[in-house]
């Protein structure tokens, strides 16, 4: 069987980005995550921070409704989305890679060489992870996780009309808090190898 | 790591039952599916057909609203549910096994030795499978699939207040139409082995 491309959607704090990097390392290919913002900036001529304010990772310092309003009423938001789609589709054409977030599963849904993965975890695991690894403040980690994911859920729904985290949208969904981050990497890589 | 018990929820036609039986065979344990109805009948003193009319597999010959009404307004339905929970929890205590459907993931959610799996597939795969393997009429397989799953979704929601097919409710979700039935069995068994 085997897959050339892996897309990873993930709950904040689930270790999905780490899993993506580990899988890419095992495959000997690039893992596109923050790198995508740089590419979108380059292609669109907009600044990185401006692009981030319109993305699924829109800063938590702006309110959720402000962020949603940004997507819904701004032609620039659509332009960024279209540039993002083009870059992701071009990357997939160029060769094997791993892409984290940014609706990549949706953009590449017609490809048969693409494995779409969703990583989730229980709240305790995610809270511990963001405090320990990302240095988030220990007093409000749950709020921070829910807020981050709320934006991802809304962004995915707004642009794809799909429900984020619904098993039917992915080929493989893994609970990293029960299976472990390294075991998730092993499982995904075993499918890539075929 | 390793798991002693595997629960499998599945879309109708996805091959989830076959996967359950294959995993059980590899583990050298029993796969409980229809066998559960026999046990519930024995324990409750009710007939098998009567129990089935109140279950997630309620006959498609009765209307969906009639079935839903059966669950919501009948003390017998709750009694069957409670007997079912007791039997499944007892089975898990007795030793390793595989249990297909019947909210087993929910009944065993406190156990750390239980792997909860959800199997889904695209419509073409499911249609082909139920016509080829179960001899369903070839002219309305999609309606039959949607009707079956509608009952499972409603039953699961009514009794567990959870959304069926939401990745967060399972440790592992697999698309059997993309990964293949045998590969799904391999993946689950590799986790059971630890």
TrEMBL record, chains A, B:
Q: Which domain of life is it from?
A: Bacteria
What Pfam families does the annotation carry? Cytidylate_kin2
| The protein's name | Cytidylate kinase-like family protein
Origin species: Pseudoflavonifractor hominis
* Species lineage: Bacteria, Bacillati, Bacillota, Clostridia, Eubacteriales
